[in-house]
Amino acid sequence: MVSWLPESASTIAQNDLESLLQICLGYKPVLFKGKQTLSPLALCIQCDGQLAIAVKKPDNENDNSETVLAKLVAAIRNDKERYRAVAIVTDSLFGKAVEKKKNSAIKINLIHSEKIGASAAYPYRTKLFDKKIILEEPIFADNDIHIWT
């Protein structure tokens, strides 16, 4: 049993979501290639078990990441019968309002067609000289994006 998923999760759901999480973390250098922040994207496990990538490009230069994320989620919802699991990857800010300090995190929303999911936020920092991305311990929480309702 994957400790961050509900006990009701099937073995297939556990395997799908854990696989998506590991794949997302394995691609962190690609996600940030040449950028200070990453654009929202999704990795999807199709019903046949194949992996697919979903991206939504900004319609114009004024589209912010929230707009792009909303369009990406809408596109996945429209095609949800094609998928059994989805990982939506975004760059997120978090921190204590008292400290007025925000930290960056890779946020991965993991959603399964069994209507279960979780989100994992991995705070990160970038080394100045070699631009290496250092991930800190994840913070797991309830998922806040819903595809299958």
Give a quick summary of the entry.
With 149 residues, the protein is an alpha+beta fold. It has helices spanning 11-26, 28-31, 65-78; strands at residues 41-46, 51-55, 83-94, 103-112, 116-126, 133-135, 139-141.
The largest sheet, given as strand count, sense and whether it forms a barrel, is: 7 strands, antiparallel
Q: β content, as a range?
A: 25-35%
Beta-strand segment tally: 7
Terminal-residue CA separation:
24 Å
Q: Can you tell me the overall shape?
A: globular
Rg of Cα set: 15 Å
Helix/strand/pairing category: alpha+beta
Treating each run of at least 4 consecutive H or I residues as one helix, how many helices?
Answer: 3
Unreliable segments of 5+ consecutive residues? 96-100
Report mean pLDDT, rounded to a whole number.
Answer: 81
Instruction: Give helix % range.
Output: 10-25%
The arrangement of helices and strands along the chain is HHEEHEEEEE
